[in-house]
Design a protein that fits this description.
CATH architecture of chain B: Orthogonal Bundle
Shape of chain B: globular
CATH topology of chain B: ABC transporter involved in vitamin B12 uptake, BtuC
Oligomer: heterodimer
Helix content of chain B: over 70%
Strand order of the largest sheet of chain A: 12-10-9-8-6-7-17
Largest sheet of chain A: 7 strands, mixed
Radius of gyration of chain B: 26 Å
Strand content of chain A: 15-25%
CATH topology of one domain in chain A: Rossmann fold
Strand content of chain B: under 5%
Number of strands of chain A: 17
Helix content of chain A: 25-40%
CATH architecture of one domain in chain A: 3-Layer(aba) Sandwich
Strand order of the largest sheet of chain B: 1-2
Number of domains of chain B: 1
Number of strands of chain B: 2
Chain lengths: 402, 386
């Protein structure tokens, strides 16, 4: 027994010694970006970030050794450990991609004030007041609005062809959680469709998960059986699009084109392109300039992108019409959350309406967000905070968070 | 296809009848292989260690070869990266020690039940429930009492809930002889569902991300990890003594060897099963408490992250001996940490490093065969005698 333990201790000591001699030195002074990912390339969510980083890398001429990825980092203390390790490896900027990473990024930001910490989808940068901690998001609601317009045009085509009546123009939406990001997304999608097809209604089914292929399939199937003639989704699997292809129901996708697997039913897809943000933060740090506390990518920065329209499924003239609407969104002529276009419980939303922008334990509404006749999404922080339940949209299951 | 079939038929007939020189050699090989397997009567510790060492070296060689072929990596850099990931900086060494301690704690938890041949694969859920209980106490009572009292309450809650979660399948096993493997496995999914429910309850924004709880943090001595490591080491010694020298430990061994013998000598088998699983569950609860109070300060469905299953391997590799488990846990954590560094250094998805860890563990488990058995050269029976 004693011998066994002794040999074990010796093995440990030996490996330690070998390891210490191998410890690499990080004296080189080149610029480095560290990227913390919740999963890896196998997840469409993380893949979108990796592609953004890789494009920015090419654009800025960074070498492989200047970009370090930490894959499969859970939303716990491991995130802090990964960030600290990246600091040790000489990173000047550390980026994390998942909402639950935020608290651990803040912890690291406090400990390493000389390093910049950037976090996508987070909500706390504007209240933490740390000079080296930043949030970022994109006005994806504009992309969803455009995708909604494409959906509305498709509905109009179906009404004209008398496949459905105007009253049957009902869309289905598969959502992950009743979280502001999802609410903002499905509402803008609905308002886009309503802008061209006034009789449209929508039903939303939540899955309670960001990625669950079976639940997403089931939700889409239930919506179609409930009479929905067009489906869109905000969850990360291929569940909903593939059901639509099987049943021949038009689908508006998210996070990249699904035309390869759904050639007959895919209309268009919106997504966030993170390349501009990565280029921005790298350039700011290399030029010794400050990074914005809250950065919101828009249609004009190229952060909100639409895929090519699939003419096999979309209504005629969709692509050209979307270009016009896109121009109007950029110029400000059209506002996505124009309070004249929707009501809440029959009432128009007034300027006194407050949303929960500053995160607190009780989630109290704290900021007036309606100005000049529109709900200003992503103005007071980059992450969405639109959480009104507007008329025309029915939530089939509300247990998530309500 | 037809031709191939005919060829096979012919070849088989040829081998069966032993016609031709080559065929007779094949026939000899099949009927009398040059090696055969013999069970070893006993093996010296030194020799067993040597076999294990050879297995590890062979596994590393195979992995370097694969890395050269599949990802075009320099094999030496591949191995050094593996070590660099685990030992490359003071911070990494602390992380290695901390992760080892957490895995060790859960491995300790499954050990008493395994020694009893009660196949508890529910450590994942038992730990998660412990973590949830600790987080619930911190969530509801945090800030309303001194931190020390809060930590104590978190500890007690985690231990009780962990024990209950482990005790339920044990009671069913003792009373109605239900299958504990399935039962404990299913309890994992229920635990994860319960955590999901509470996350929705605690986060009205609907994000299901609890975030860092402000209260109930374990005090930092030397650093955040040190108290946790010490706590687990103390637990290791306690469990070793309990299993080796206490009457309970002896009863566990007897029940594990044969339930009938245990009944014959007057051991209440049902009582031992339930008591042991309560202890297993309670230690899982301690692990959950440590994760929440010293590391995450939060809880989610992925808080335990599969450690409940990895722990089974750590416990098994150590032959259910708590002291040797320090080494097996360290080894597994070393591999994982090294593999993660490989994904960063070579910028590849995690599938390849996972494969590497799998290959190395396969070699180590596989080498047990050569520790229990040896290959002996078959002495040729002389043709002339036949």
């Amino acid at each position: 027994m004693f011998k066994k333990i002794l040999s074990l201790v010796l093995v440990v000591a030996l490996t330690l010694a070998v390891g210490l001699t191998l410890a690499s030195c990080n004296t080189e002074d080149e610029f480095k970006l560290g990227v913390i990912l919740l999963h890896d390339e196998a997840s469409t969510y993380d893949k979108n970030f990796i592609e953004g980083v890789e494009r920015a890398k090419t654009e800025l001429g960074l070498t492989d050794s200047q970009v370090l990825y930490k894959r499969n980092i859970p939303e716990g203390n491991e995130c802090y450990e990964a960030a600290a390790d990246l600091v040790d490896q000489g990173c000047d900027i550390i980026f994390a991609d998942s909402f639950g990473h935020e608290d651990y990024m803040i912890k690291a930001a406090k400990e390493f004030p000389e390093v910049e910490f950037c976090h996508a989808t987070g909500t706390k940068a504007h209240t933490e007041n740390l000079p080296n901690y930043h949030n970022a998001f994109a006005s994806i609601y504009e992309g969803r609005y455009l995708a909604g317009v494409a959906a509305g045009l498709k509905l109009n085509e179906m009404i004209e062809a008398e496949t459905i009546t105007a009253q049957q123009a009902k869309m289905g939406y598969v959502g992950a959680f009743t979280y502001a990001e999802v609410i903002s997304g499905y509402t803008s999608f609905y308002l886009g469709a309503k802008s061209v097809c006034p009789s449209v209604t929508m039903e939303v089914q939540f899955t309670g998960s960001w990625y669950d292929e079976t639940l997403e399939r089931d939700a889409a199937t239930a919506l179609i059986e409930n009479g929905c003639v067009l489906i869109s989704q905000h969850a990360d699997s291929m569940g909903a699009p593939s059901v639509c292809e099987d049943k021949g129901v038009p689908n508006v996708s998210y996070n990249g084109s699904t035309v390869a697997s759904c050639p007959d039913t895919f209309i268009v897809s919106s997504k966030i392109d993170w390349t501009p943000y990565f280029v921005y933060i790298c350039e700011q740090v290399q030029a010794d300039k400050e990074i914005a506390v809250d950065w919101t990518g828009t249609l004009s920065t190229g952060s909100v992108a639409l895929s090519d329209v699939n003419n096999a499924a979309a209504a005629e003239g969709t692509a050209a019409y979307l270009e016009t609407v896109k121009g109007k969104l950029i110029s400000g002529e059209v506002e996505v959350f124009d309070v004249d276009t929707f009501t809440v419980a029959g009432e128009k939303v007034t300027e006194a309406h407050k949303a929960d922008v500053d995160t607190d334990a009780a989630y109290t509404p704290d900021t007036e967000v309606v100005e000049n006749g529109a709900f200003k999404e992503s103005k007071y922080r980059s992450a969405p905070y639109f959480d009104l339940r507007i008329d025309g949209i029915v939530l089939l299951n509300q247990e998530y968070g309500d | 296809m037809e031709k191939f079939k005919a060829f096979c038929k012919k070849a088989w007939a040829c081998i069966k009848n032993g016609t031709g020189k080559a065929c007779s050699a094949v026939k000899d090989f099949i009927s009398e292989p040059p090696f055969h397997v013999v069970k070893r009567a006993q093996i010296s510790t030194k020799k067993a260690m040597l076999i294990r060492l050879i297995a590890i070296v062979a596994a590393l060689l195979l992995c370097s070869l694969l890395s050269a072929v599949l990802i075009g990596a320099n094999p030496i850099k591949f191995i050094t990266t593996l070590f660099d990931g685990a030992f490359g900086s003071t911070r990494r060494i602390w992380k290695l020690a901390k992760d080892t301690a957490v895995l060790l704690c859960i491995s300790l938890a499954v050990t008493p039940a395994f020694r009893m041949r009660f196949w508890n694969i529910g450590a994942e859920g038992q730990t998660l429930m412990g973590a949830l209980a600790a987080a619930a106490v911190a969530h509801y009572l945090g800030g309303k009492m001194p931190n020390g009292v809060l930590l104590l309450l978190m500890f007690v809650a985690a231990v009780i809930v962990g024990a209950v979660w482990g005790g339920i399948p044990a009671i069913f096993k003792a009373k109605w002889n239900t299958n504990e493997t399935l039962f404990t496995l299913m309890m994992n999914y229920i635990a994860s569902g319960i955590v999901a429910y509470f996350l929705l309850l605690w986060t009205p924004s609907g994000s299901s991300v609890l975030g860092e709880l402000p209260h109930g943090h374990m005090p930092s001595i030397i650093n955040d990890y040190f108290p946790l490591i010490v706590a687990v080491l103390i637990l290791t010694v306690l469990l070793f003594v309990y299993l080796r020298y206490a009457k309970h430990g002896y009863e566990i061994s007897v029940v594990g060897e044969s339930e009938n013998t245990a009944k014959y000598v007057g051991i209440n088998v049902g009582k031992v099963i339930v008591r042991t699983m309560l202890i297993s569950g309670a230690i899982c609860g301690i692990a959950g408490f440590l994760i929440v109070s010293a590391l995450d300060h939060s809880v989610s469905e992925t808080t335990v992250g599969g450690l409940g299953f990895t722990a089974i391997m750590a416990s098994w590799l150590a032959k259910f001996n708590p002291l040797i488990m320090i080494g097996s846990s360290l080894f597994i954590v070393f591999l994982n940490q090294g593999a993660n560094q490989i994904t960063t250094t070579f910028n590849i998805a995690s599938a390849f490093p996972d494969m590497v860890v799998g290959i190395i563990l396969f070699f180590i488990i596989g080498c047990e065969f050569f520790i229990n058995y040896s290959l002996k050269r078959t002495e040729k029976t002389k043709k002339e005698d036949a």
